[in-house]
Amino acid sequence: MVGNIKCRKAFTKSVKPNSNPNTIYMLENSVPKSLSGHNNVNYKNKSGSFTFTDGYDYYIPEEIEVTSSVKYVRTFTESDAAKWSSMVIPFDVNTVKVDDTAIDWFHSATDTNKAFWLEKILSVGDDNVRLGYASSIKANVPYLIANDGSLAGKQVVFSGGATTLKPTSSTPMHSMIGNDKLLWTNRATQMWNIYFASNFSNTFAYTADAIVVIPFRVYIDKANSSVTSLSIQGPDITDGIELIIEDSSIPTDIFSLTGVKVGNTSQKNQLPAGVYVVNGKKVIIW
């Protein structure tokens, strides 16, 4: 099993947690202090709360009843700003929070003052992926997600209520859109001849070579893979961000989204492409 320890049929006073926070500890008796705060499951296959952490493998060996809440925790980086990435999680989401404060996403083209974009995949065309506004986050449904940089460096917590987690072995890790297949995985593994969300070009880029795919992300297995990339047709995720820095005889400081000075406007061509802050405004440097 991937990332799991079974401790049943034994009296265990102490268990040293491993480095994977998604590990499930299945216990016959009481929870050792060393496992406090981890994903613990009792002999009735029940767990009070459960947390999935982005970037780590997970495996659900048996049906688990979560009696209180289940969470998926994802930390966005500066390189995620104004770029599409994908997301698929194994439970329905009721709330999204940052620093214990509820945030929301854009639910329509007329929506304003929201923290991020969340889009469902409506169709996969010959050379494009068409998106539509998502009204909710459902278990095992692929989405694309983006933010304007305001979530950089922040831990975003997607939470659901009491639920039943289905065994990984009996949970499909794909869905069909026409003749094309959307794929995801519960563990880092290799795939090839697929399209992956590329935040370098804001497209789904094709690779014939094997690449490592990771949990909680979505990939496209296209029936016809004759094009090198699929453009993403969705809302403008650069809205509210200046696209250029006007040249000035007086250099102006440039800051990262987390407030670190990285240079000035005379050095903009030396900076990696991304979203920065100049004179209190977000700008994109290509």
SSE order and pairing:
Blueprint: E1 4-6, E2 24-26, E3 39-41, E4 46-53, E5 64-75, E6 85-87, E7 95-98, E8 101-103, E9 105-106, E10 116-124, E11 128-133, E12 143-146, E13 155-160, E14 163-165, E15 174-177, E16 180-183, E17 189-191, E18 194-198, E19 203-207, E20 211-213, E21 219-221, E22 229-233, E23 253-255, E24 261-264, E25 274-278, E26 281-285
Parallel strand pairs: 1-2, 2-3, 4-5, 9-10, 11-22
Antiparallel strand pairs: 5-13, 5-14, 6-12, 7-8, 7-13, 10-11, 10-12, 15-16, 16-21, 17-20, 18-19, 18-21, 19-22, 23-24, 23-25, 25-26
Q: What can you see in these coordinates?
A:
The protein is built from no helices and 26 strands. The radius of gyration is 21 Å and the shape is globular. Helices cover 0% and strands 41% of the residues. It is an all-beta fold and 286 residues long. A hairpin with a 4-residue loop joins strand 18 and strand 19 (203-207).
Largest sheet: 11 strands, mixed
Low-confidence stretches: none
- Rg from C-alpha positions? 21 Å
First-to-last CA distance: 44 Å
Count of DSSP helices? Answer: 0
How do the SSEs run, as a string of H and E? EEEEEEEEEEEEEEEEEEEEEEEEEE
User: Which geometry do the CA atoms define?
Assistant: globular
Q: Roughly what fraction of the amino acids lie in strands?
A: 35-45%
Features:
6-stranded mixed sheet, 286 residues, mainly beta
Produce a short descriptive summary:
The protein is mainly β. It has strands spanning 4-6, 24-26, 39-41, 46-53, 64-75, 85-87, 95-98, 101-103, 105-106, 116-124, 128-133, 143-146, 155-160, 163-165, 174-177, 180-183, 189-191, 194-198, 203-207, 211-213, 219-221, 229-233, 253-255, 261-264, 274-278, 281-285.
